[in-house]
């Protein structure tokens, strides 16, 4: 059954299926061209940069024009049924390109690889290569194999692959913000989630390589990095040389110390794992952004238990209180699932009331979509009718819209330090950037000569639900 989906994940939703091109035009000519489109979470977009780096060293250059590509890749997502359907549709379009240009190879990368390998390769004959998220180093060999007409597959999941030594090619970057992957996989078994099956066990990347990548980015003019992982708070790496255990709090500190001029963000935190230490580290360093994405999923303890989230409503509320107490003014956002198995109207109202309590600035909101192989698919019946899921989701979205507007209204008259990321999408007369607490801020370019990558203080004088609007002012004393 097709699942209708409403999500206000505007910035991310707009990137779905984005074709990648490198930040700088390559000086030398590559022997062949690859085209790569990415779907799903930020981790996939970041993985595409690792793939690009591996392909570059093999003499392949990125192109944004699928017609001129010798290799076409789709970095795929399995998180909801809708994501898989979108990818299938794209694959049939690519089959047409293949027919007009024989010799073009099509590959599926990422989360759908493991789940659908035989279907995509043998039954539907849509693709030449299927490569799982831990097998990108074998891409060159797989391409060679596919060039001989064989079907090339590697979907093995690894216990230690972190691509620590691969320096990602920054694709479609604004030259200011970059993602740095710090861990892969997930050991949490949230009952609705397919990630532990498609991306494997949790493993943390060498802290030195993370700091080195950050230093390199800063030296090349980047001003903001986001540490990425499915559950960054369970980052754990042992520095054997110094007999030191590096927790996420310690890693955050190391990265923050690269430069006070470099902003540090991170995503995503599982509420059960974000420690008081992490909160104090965020509070201590001005350049660690005061923003936490803390996905609640549901506001009802019984549903949370069925979801295997390992916290209760009350525990989550205490965590929100703790964040607000340790980091005043901290931005908080969430992920919410409507219509999980057995959810009653009362359970749904618990979600709404917890949203009100948490005063989220932003939420990513979804229908429950049963994923084959997950604990929920095996144990529970997907028993909430689609219209009910849809109506509950709409109520959640409407509430979040109000909360986002109220949150922005609370910022009227305040002054924030903004890192300029780009020109505003709506007008080349305006700059767009974000505050530490992750609000999008737009302000006119007139009367100052700030440029992209500068920090500037902006006084907020109006707002919409998604944006704060203001004017550049002198740094407050
Ligand atoms: N690791 C992150 C966490 O625990 O918050 C998020 C990973 S997942 C890529 C992003 C979001 O997708 C989840 O937080 C959840 O809200 C949503 N999601 C995951 N599985 C889903 C499903 N089967 N149906 C609907 N939404 C789902
Ligand atoms: Fe999925 Fe839960 Fe892991 Fe997030 S923490 S990736 S929702 S299993």
List keywords for this structure.
alpha/beta; 477 residues; binds iron/sulfur cluster; five-stranded mixed beta barrel; binds S-adenosylmethionine; 14 helices; seven-stranded mixed beta sheet
Give the topology, please.
Blueprint: H1 10-13, E1 18-19, E2 32-38, H2 42-57, E3 60-62, E4 71-76, H3 81-100, E5 105-110, H4 111-123, E6 129-131, H5 139-147, E7 152-154, E8 177-181, E9 183-184, H6 195-199, E10 203-204, H7 207-219, E11 224-228, E12 236-239, E13 244-247, H8 248-256, E14 263-267, H9 276-284, E15 291-293, H10 301-306, H11 313-326, E16 331-338, H12 345-358, E17 362-367, H13 375-379, H14 386-410, E18 415-423, E19 430-434, E20 440-444, E21 455-463, E22 468-473
Parallel strand pairs: 2-3, 2-4, 4-5, 5-6, 6-7, 8-11, 11-14, 15-16, 16-17, 20-22
Antiparallel strand pairs: 1-2, 9-10, 12-13, 18-19, 18-21, 19-20, 21-22
Helix pairs in contact: 8-9, 12-14
Bound molecules: S-adenosylmethionine (SAM) and iron/sulfur cluster (SF4).
């Amino acid at each position: 059954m097709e699942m209708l989906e409403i999500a206000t994940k505007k910035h991310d939703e707009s990137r779905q299926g984005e074709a990648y091109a490198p930040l700088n035009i390559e000086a030398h000519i590559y022997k062949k061209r690859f085209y790569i489109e990415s779907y799903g979470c930020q981790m996939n977009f970041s993985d595409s940069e690792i793939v690009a780096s591996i392909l570059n060293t093999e003499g392949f250059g990125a192109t944004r024009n699928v017609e001129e590509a010798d290799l076409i890749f789709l970095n795929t997502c399995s998180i909801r049924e809708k994501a898989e359907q979108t990818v299938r549709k794209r694959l049939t379009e690519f089959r047409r390109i293949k027919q007009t240009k024989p010799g073009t190879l099509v590959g599926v990368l990422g989360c759908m690889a493991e789940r659908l390998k035989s279907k995509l390769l043998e039954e539907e004959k849509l693709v030449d290569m299927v490569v799982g998220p831990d097998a990108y180093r074998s891409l060159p060999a797989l391409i060679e194999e596919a060039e001989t007409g064989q079907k090339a597959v590697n979907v093995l999941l690894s216990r230690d692959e972190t691509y620590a030594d691969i320096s990602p090619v920054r694709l479609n970057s604004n030259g200011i913000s970059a993602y740095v992957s710090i861990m892969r996989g997930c050991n949490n078994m949230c009952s609705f989630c397919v990630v532990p099956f498609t991306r494997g066990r949790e493993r943390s990347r060498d802290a030195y390589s993370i700091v080195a990548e950050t230093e390199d980015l800063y030296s090349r003019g980047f001003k903001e990095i986001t540490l990425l992982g499915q559950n960054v708070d369970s980052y754990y790496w042992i520095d054997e040389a110094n007999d030191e255990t590096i927790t996420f709090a310690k890693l955050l500190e190391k990265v923050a110390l690269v430069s006070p001029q470099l902003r540090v963000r991170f995503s995503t935190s599982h509420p059960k794992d974000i420690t008081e230490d992490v909160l104090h580290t965020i509070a201590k360093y001005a350049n660690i952004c005061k923003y936490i994405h803390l996905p609640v999923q549901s506001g009802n303890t019984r549903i949370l238990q069925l979801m295997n989230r390992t916290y209760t409503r009350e525990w989550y509320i205490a965590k929100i209180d703790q964040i607000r107490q340790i980091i005043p003014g901290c931005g908080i956002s969430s992920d919410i699932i409507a219509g999980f198995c057995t959810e009653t109207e009362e359970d749904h109202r618990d979600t709404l009331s917890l949203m009100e309590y948490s005063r989220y600035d932003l939420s990513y909101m979804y229908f429950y979509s049963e994923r084959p192989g997950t604990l929920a698919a095996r144990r529970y019946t997907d028993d909430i009718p689609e219209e009910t899921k849809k109506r509950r989701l709409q109520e959640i979205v409407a509430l979040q819209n109000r909360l986002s507007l109220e949150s922005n209204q609370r910022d009227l008259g305040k002054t924030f330090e903004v890192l300029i990321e780009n020109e505003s999408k709506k007008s080349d007369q305006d700059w767009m950037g974000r505050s530490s607490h992750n609000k999008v801020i737009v302000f006119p370019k007139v009367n100052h000569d700030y440029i992209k990558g500068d920090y500037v203080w902006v006084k907020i004088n109006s707002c919409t639900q998604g944006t704060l609007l203001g004017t550049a002012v002198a740094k407050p004393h």
